[in-house]
Amino acid sequence: MDNIKEFNAKSAFPYALGFIGCGNMAYAIVSGLIKAKLFEETSIIVSGTKMESFERWTHFNVAKTLKNKEVVEKSQITFLCVKPNVANAIANSMGKDVTTSPNQTFVSILAGKSLEDIKDIFKNLQHLNFIRAMPNTPLMVCAGATALTADDVRSESSLRNFEVIKSIFKTLGIVEIVDENKFHAITGLSGSGPAYIYIMIEALSDAGVKQGLPRDLATKFAAQTVFGASKTLLETGLHPGQAKDQVTSAGGTTIYGLHELEKGRIRDSLINAVEAATKRSEEMSKYVAPMNIFISK
To answer: Residues that bind NADPH, according to the entry (predicted)?
Structure first.
């Protein structure tokens, strides 16, 4: 995208993007960016608590560091990709003397933590613009879903960075600007949602095996069926109920299968799963983590 090319060309920082944390979400985002060829691998820096943390990163030529402070100071856009319970310790480990500028942006993907929470935790990053994102792990194959909300984006540099961040997530899937009061629900639905779908695919694969299909074939057809059904809804705009009816013939095989799903209360199970995850996100927003967890500086 043109704004990303311009961003890369004009960035005055050693790294265009930095990632605090080298876990699943950071890996998913970086994998997607490299797959989409949006950034050079050498323009990305990632931090971890120990060098062994980078074991699966060896095939990426990104910079690696044990110092979170280095990521913030040297990156134009920094993504905070850690568990919420270590955020206070990370902020504390950097100390008060962190060199930042208004040209830099800090993107938090912490579940349950509002922009106000993040700004309060990271008081030492006074000059940064803050953005909150809730992506999901299918970003690694450019099929993610990300919600964004921002602090006051007023300056030219902060607006430019915000547009770059939107472009990043748009390239990695879909992105929507969402009021922050919807973020707990987004977390419960799409943030945790891939796990719900994976267990459904696993169950469908088990069902295929029970009916005599080889495991690899059963899994491939189950996954492709979910992918095809999802793509149908996204590209046609059909209501899920309409699309379901198009597959369901009177007295045919599908209605018999659907009847069994309804007896198993699949709708209730999925609704309850999203509700439980949403409530957990709300609970996490009230948790105050200790400052003394060991975190690299």
So the answer is: 68
Task: Say if residue 81 carries a ligand binding annotation.
Answer: no
Is 134 annotated to bind ligand? Answer: no
Number of structural domains found in the chain: 2
Is 92 known as a binding-site position?
no
Work out the end-to-end distance of the chain between its first and last CA atoms, rounded to an integer number of angstroms.
34
With residues binned 3-state (H G I as helix, E B as strand, rest as coil), the percentages for the chain, rounded to 5, are 55, 15, 30
**Alpha-carbon dihedral sign for residues 64, 91, 72, 159:** positive
d(CA 50, CA 96): 23
Would you place residue 100 in the very low, low, confident or very high pLDDT band (cuts 50, 70, 90)?
A: confident
101: nearest Cα among 80, 119, 76: 76
Is residue 124 a known part of a binding site? no
Q: In the numeric block, which tokens belong to residue 250?
A: 């009177």
Assign residue 246 the CATH number of its domain: 1.10.3730.10
Find out whether 21 is annotated in a ligand binding site. yes
Tens digit of pLDDT for each residue in 186-216? Answer: 999 999 999 999 999 999 999 999 999 999 9
* Residue with tokens 């209605």, as numbered in its chain: 255
Q: Is 136 annotated as a binding residue?
A: no
Does 176 share its domain with 231? no
Q: Is 142 annotated to bind ligand? A: no
User: Over the stretch 237-281, which tens digit does the pLDDT of each residue have?
Assistant: 999 999 999 999 999 999 999 999 999 999 999 999 999 999 999
